[in-house]
Amino acid sequence: MTAAWHVVVPVKPAAVGKSRLGGSGRAALAEAIARDTVEAACRAARVCEVVVVTADGAWADDPASRVRVVRETAPAGLGPAIRAGLAAVAGDRPRAVLLGDLPALRPADLDAALGLAEAVPLGLVPDAEGTGSTLVTARTGAPLEPAFGPGSATRHRAAGFVELEIAATSTLRRDVDTLAQLDAAAALGLGPRTAALRPGRSSRPVRAP
């Protein structure tokens, strides 16, 4: 298994992230979700670099864990953040964009998707509801122009992205915007930071290889 993929993760500043979660601890929970997602991506064997794009000063480069930060001067939105991250990947290399709200993500699930992505120019993993997208990929030689946002799975398919054969129960599909979705992620097993801050409940953190 070769660590060849450069994975871009856009991250909103915690102060404005995950507004639909509500509550006084929302900002800390938003940061925990993003950090658990990035940590899981860093532990995936097929990933050689995780490019975090953010205006949040709490994030910093961490060569030991393969994290590189592309700093925004101010939040510019999901599309501009993704474009900035992709532009920071030098040369024509396998690239992917992973949303930063997958607190149950297991490295093995990301590895499985990236392995399948090696067989198609452009790959797609829809979210658990089937309407959004959590991961898009482009192997060497394929231009990557993501179209995230509401209804993005349909737009990605229309643009030529091939849906990867990922199980409906994969942790890679379970993004979190609401407390109900956080509960669904908890049933899969949350990362340690998110588990510690999950409102009013406890959950065993994920410690997958």
From TrEMBL:
<dbReference type="InterPro" id="IPR029044">
    <property type="entry name" value="Nucleotide-diphossugar_trans"/>
</dbReference>
<dbReference type="InterPro" id="IPR002835">
    <property type="entry name" value="CofC"/>
</dbReference>
<feature type="domain" description="MobA-like NTP transferase">
    <location>
        <begin position="33"/>
        <end position="130"/>
    </location>
</feature>
<keyword id="KW-0547">Nucleotide-binding</keyword>
<protein>
    <submittedName>
        <fullName>2-phospho-L-lactate guanylyltransferase</fullName>
    </submittedName>
</protein>
<dbReference type="GO" id="GO:0016779">
    <property type="term" value="F:nucleotidyltransferase activity"/>
</dbReference>
<keyword id="KW-0808">Transferase</keyword>
<keyword id="KW-0342">GTP-binding</keyword>
<dbReference type="Pfam" id="PF12804">
    <property type="entry name" value="NTP_transf_3"/>
</dbReference>
<dbReference type="InterPro" id="IPR025877">
    <property type="entry name" value="MobA-like_NTP_Trfase"/>
</dbReference>
<keyword id="KW-0548">Nucleotidyltransferase</keyword>
